[in-house]
Structures are given as C-alpha cells and as structure tokens.
Design goal:
464 residues, Alkaline Phosphatase, subunit A, 18 strands, alpha/beta
C-alpha cells in the first residue's frame, strides 16, 4: 500500500534532515557511530526477506502446552489433565477439545514444541521472550533498564524501518508487568527514537481513537507547520546538537507523531469502525479480538512489527487476565482455561489467520503466538500447573514458515525436548532472518560494546 501524494514529505524534510545531522553528530551518546553502522550493514550475507511484517501475539502468564497444542492423553491423570484431544485437519496432530476452530486451521501453521530455557520467573522469562536475550539472572525483581536488550520491534526499526509516515514498531493495548514493569518492551540503549508507537487504549471500546493522530478543530496542518518552524529556529539558537540523547529521542517522537498526522494510511488503519460488523464479530468483541483485528489493519498500512499483549497481568482468578493458571485452591486453572483463555484463543487466533490468508497477506506476514514459558507436566494438587520453562510450544504461521508442520517433539510427559530443541534465541534469529535481517548483525550498547541482534541460530527446519 502507498500513502496519498500529499505535502507531508516536503513539509517534514527539514526536520528529518536535522534528525540525520543529530544522529551523525552525536550518536556516540547512544553507543552508535557511523563506522559501526556501516560495519553492521556489511556483516554477513543479507538474507532474502520472506516476511514483510511480524504480528507477535505475546501470551503473558505462560500457556499450558499440555492443555492446548501438545497434549499427552496416554500419560497418568496427574499429567494429562481434564481435557481430551481432538483431531485436526493436519494428519497426526491433535489439539485440546476446547480449540475446535483452531483444529481446522492447523494446516496453515507450524508448531514448535521444543522451546526451552531456565527462567522460571515471569519478569525474567518475559524479558527473554520479548527480546531473545537471556537476562543476567532469573530474578523476579529484574527491573526495566536501558542496560538490558531492546525489543524485537525496536531492532527492526533501527535496521529495517517502515516507509516514511508509518510506524515500524507498534505495541498495545497494555504495558505488561508482574509487580514491576517487565523489561523488553522498548528500545532500551538504542534510544527513544526506536521505542514502539505505544497505544494504551482498548480497541474494543466504542470510543477507541488516538488523540495524537487527530488535530484540534482550530489547528490545521499548515499552522502546525508554522509552529514547527518556530521551534526549529529556537533549536538553532540554543544549539540543540549539545543536548542529551534523551532530548533527541523526544524530538524524534514528536517528529514521528507529526508525520503520522498527515498519513491517511495510518489514520485509516486505526478506524476500526470502518470494518464490517461481521468481521469484528468474527474476531470477537473483546480487547484481544479487536487488538488482533487492528494488527491486520496495521500490516495493511505498512507497519513491520506489531506486539499484541494478551493481557496486562499474568493471571489470577478473574476471567480477564493472563495465562498464569496456578496458585489458588480447587484447581481454578480449569475454569479459567475452559471458560475464558481457551475460548478466546479458539475464536481470535483462527480468525486472524484466515483473514490474513483470504486477503493474500499471510504468506508475507509472520504470526507468532507464544508465552514466556509453559506449565509443569505434573498438576499440583493445590495449585494446578506451575511455571515450566524446560519445554513449551510456540505457534507460527505465514511469513516464510511451513504450513502444516510440527518441529521437534517433547518427551512422553511433555517435560523436556526429546528432539530438535529450540531456544528463544533461535526464535529471535528466525524472525529476523524472515524479515531479511542478518541475525548476526551487530548493534552497540550504551558502553559501545558490539552485540549481535541474536545469539541464536535460524530454525531452518521450519522454513518453507
């Protein structure tokens, strides 16, 4: 899709030029400099881009693979759980009986059944899941910091941004946390200019809109441009080049917001009211359902990496939170799974996959459905299934991965990988590779140390 031919490119050219000057003149404050950028661009052989965009559906709390995509019906009662498996349209593959609509689209997806790591706390595992980098320690007190690694989308924005006027990295509708904000949701040491375009609103709300994309009635783009010119004059007089990296990041945020004000494609993408009611109902009139519909519209508008957070909190007894289905008496995991978590997944995920496919978008859009870990094989009599990073499942579809494929196998009780183990690092490398970005490309941290964007290996066995 292309944006309409308006005056936006000429209107913002001076600010973009100044931004480039700022970057060249002072990127050392961010740990980046021109030789380093050139070296990063020259490293390795650039892979062929198979995906134009990634929709990263983060299932905060940790879904149970035993109760969804890797059931063990022959295991003892304390392991196989309450649910029964059902056949899918992919020969030899079964899923939970609560996922009948997903069962009929399994020929579109790849299941990776052997993700594993050692982080048992939500914040540390969540950071690993959102960045592909293992945290320095498995500590629930892990705090967000610019010393930690950037989010996937921020790296994409740095190395392979969307076209002008379109946000590369969009994240919504929550900031996820467990006691404290979970690291890995922003650009970290890459600088604020590469933070996501973050939306803290409910797309299912009747009054969903983005104020930053709407001008007041008494303020035209022409007047806004005049104000910007005044700011430029002030900037020159106050020697903005001497300002901090943070100030430049704020300037970049402001520039991006102004650019999107004049982008019909972006304003159109956020107008969910333009969708037929049948389509909105198909996705589900829930925050998650409409968030996934918005993701499809953002892909059409040209966004490259979209984080959709299933919930704000890890989970609990209420039927409006995440996948942390343990810690309470009387096995509340089963009512929560049966009445909320599995039904909403069963409706929304296949709706997104089918909609993308019907519109000819799935082959160039990689959909990744994954949590920060799985759940334990053995059901705790008092608390349900506990945290289990040693083996869990991710679902991938489109964007250059095989259709109707299962990668790896867990052991007979779903405790550990039995073949073809995969780490979050490898999933990260695969996503970058599919986007046409060499996973070995280096970026520089705040101390100017070179770091590859992924320490993993591309999962070649799942590529189409």
């Amino acid at each position: 899709m292309t944006t309409n031919g308006d005056c936006s490119e000429n209107f913002f050219a001076p600010a973009l030029t100044r931004r480039h000057l700022l970057q060249v003149g002072g990127l050392s404050l961010l740990g980046l400099h021109l030789p380093g950028l050139l070296r990063a661009a020259e490293q390795g052989t650039k892979p062929k881009a198979r995906a134009r965009a990634v929709i990263f559906l983060h299932q905060w709390g940790g879904p149970s693979h035993h109760d969804s995509f890797d059931m063990k019906p022959s295991a003892p009662d304390a392991i196989r759980g309450e649910f029964k498996p059902i056949a899918t349209n992919l020969a030899g593959v079964q899923v939970c009986e609560c996922l009948p609509d997903l069962a009929r689209v399994m020929n579109k997806v790849t299941l990776v059944r052997t993700l594993h790591h050692t982080m048992k706390n939500h914040n540390s595992a969540g950071y690993y899941s959102l960045t592909g980098y293992a945290p320095p320690s498995d500590d629930q007190r892990l705090r967000d910091s610019n010393d930690l690694f950037p989010a996937y989308g921020s790296i994409v924005d740095r190395l392979a941004p969307a076209r002008a006027g379109v946000p590369t990295f969009v994240a919504y509708p929550h900031t996820i946390s467990d006691g404290s904000v979970t690291p890995g949701q922003h650009a970290s040491f890459l600088g604020k200019a590469h933070d996501p375009f973050f939306i803290n609103q409910d797309p299912n709300s009747p009054d969903f809109r983005l104020p930053e994309l709407s001008l007041p009635d008494n303020l035209s783009l022409e007047r806004l441009g005049n104000r910007r010119e005044v700011l430029r004059l002030i900037d020159r007089q106050t020697e903005l080049l001497e300002f901090s990296a943070k100030a430049r990041g704020i300037d970049a945020h402001y520039q991006r917001a102004l650019t999107m004000l004049s982008s019909p494609a972006i304003k159109k993408a956020f107008d969910l009211s333009a969708e037929p009611d049948a389509v909105r109902q198909r996705y589900g009139r829930t925050t998650y359902g409409q968030s996934c519909l918005l993701a499809r519209r953002l892909v059409e508008a040209g966004a490259r990496f979209i984080n959709v957070y299933f919930s704000r909190s890890i989970g609990g007894q209420s039927f409006d939170s995440g996948w942390d289905t343990h810690g309470f008496n009387n096995h509340p995991m089963y009512p929560i799974l049966k009445k909320y978590l599995l039904p909403i997944t069963n409706q929304t995920l296949p709706a997104l996959l089918e909609d993308l496919d019907q519109r000819g978008l799935l082959d160039e859009t990689l959909v990744v459905w994954v949590g920060e870990f799985g759940r334990s094989p053995r059901i705790n009599k008092m608390a349900g299934r506990d945290h289990w990073p040693q083996c869990y499942t991710a679902l991938l579809a489109g964007g250059g991965v095989k259709r109707g494929h299962v990668h790896g196998a867990s052991d007979k009780i779903g405790a550990y990988p039995a073949s073809d183990p995969v780490r979050p690092d490898d999933l990260a490398a695969t996503m970058f590779d599919l986007l046409g970005i060499d996973p070995k490309t280096e970026i520089r941290d705040a101390l100017n140390r070179p770091l590859p964007i992924s320490s993993g290996e591309v999962i070649r066995g799942i590529l189409a």
